[in-house]
């Protein structure tokens, strides 16, 4: 059984304890947008991960430095020699917020819920799971359809590993996301749409180590300039997703510090190539390539983000070992763009791009709009609230959409759900059997060199078919009140509240 070293865990707990003798105060966090739902099974917006991380403990978490698995509700695991199953040991003495005990039966319930709920975004993440067996109250065996233990375990450190209270989930059904009950350090109190999400410390939390503040309020503020102003005025203590152009305003401001970390995700324009009547515009790969070639990624990164982001064109960063060097970030080629459009019979292409109200994507969309105009392409911009935009994308009610993926430690998490034929987030309904075969083979191999070659092959297929124009990979910039102690940035952009020490109240 792969148990995590007590010494390492004790050191981590000591570090958390050193931040505060006891939790106190109200921590206010400005998040990028109002989440869609607080149900980990059907949540899609990255902003939902912020409050859900406080409310819903996972079977595992990942470390901030090397993204290795660390214990949360599971204390260890053992992979069978044939790779066709793994066994989890569960933490004892854990209660859900409604008092229901956390045990192996609860884990089995959650796997079943993630895998079988209509509209679940976790289904693909757990697609390799064949069955879940209760060995004893603190032990679960997960049997697999193919040897994909490493991928499934990594996914259990994300929303697929969040455990909800079975009784509450059964009682609330589709309404569970309006009043989630989990086993995290904080319990849900209330949600005011477009106003705030409030959580407070759970008295019976399994970890007795002094934690964070007594209460946390998540405030959706879509404009990063407004988030920044709220941070500087003291209205909030943390502002997520500041943009590089915000940073000069903070120079010399002793009230605020900026913490940055590399980001696992990417921003991209997704083309509807096969989802309903609106797919006609981009069903021809030559049209998708034409738009892609008219975009200057380096110019976007330099002009809008002060070269703080990294231009990209694949589902992993150019710095990743899985990046396909045979298909580097393309240079802009307006003449080639015009030729492709003429060949496709649409020399005067016109289409609409859906964009959320977020400033970063709004400015980038306008920049791209001007670039495309030089290639004879008219791109209209339609602003939609992000949750509405994603709903329309799923229904095929779009030609192109400016989307963002927060990223996963394993490249499978950045690709499979978005481009495999049955991927739940494949809003374009793009389907390529050759690509599916490569991605499935990459899921099953335990050979690191073979896996790297397979993902490079997959990236090559996607580069030729241009399912999306991936534009850049961020660094996350988080604004933090200088008086707040214990904030640790994470590559998945999710804020862990545990261990933060609130500043003393002002009089």
UniProtKB/TrEMBL annotation:
GO cellular component terms given for this protein: ATP-binding cassette (ABC) transporter complex; outer membrane-bounded periplasmic space
Record-level GO BP terms: peptide transport
Key words, A-Z: Signal
Span of the signal peptide: 1-23
Stored InterPro entries: Peptide/Ni-bd (IPR030678), SBP_5 (IPR039424), SBP_5_CS (IPR023765), SBP_5_dom (IPR000914)
GO molecular function: peptide transmembrane transporter activity
Domain Solute-binding protein family span(s) in chain numbering: 69-420
SUPFAM superfamilies listed in its UniProt record: Periplasmic binding protein-like II
Sequence similarity: Belongs to the bacterial solute-binding protein 5 family.
Protein name per the record: ABC transporter substrate-binding protein
Organism: Verticiella sediminum
